[in-house]
Amino acid sequence: MGNSISVQVTGFFGSEPQVKEVGEQRVVSFSLAINRKTSNGKQQTLWLTGQRVEWPR
User: Fold this and answer.
1) How far apart are CA 10 and CA 19, in angstroms?
2) Distance of CA 36 to CAs 14, 15, 42, 44, Å?
3) pTM of the entire structure?
4) Which of 4, 27, 31, 33 is least enclosed, having the fewest CB within 10 Å?
């Protein structure tokens, strides 16, 4: 079994998460917007995209 990394991020969904079935597993694709201030004080929006494999049905 591979390694697992847990990350917690707070932000806003860019759109509804998309759930697809791949074989016997469900995969969730999503985008997340995160606002932050840069070192010079400007506001910046970062976009994260990701996927998560869910348990078998």
Assistant:
1) 21
2) 16, 20, 8, 5
3) 0.59
4) 4
Reported confidence tier of residue 7, pLDDT bands at 50, 70, 90:
confident
Residues 29, 27: Cα–Cα separation, whole Å? 7
Site of tokens 């869910």: 54
From residue 55, alpha-carbon distances to 6, 24, 34 in Å are: 16, 8, 27
CA distance 19 to 29: 7
Contact 28, 16 (CB under 8 A): no
Strand partners, 19: 28
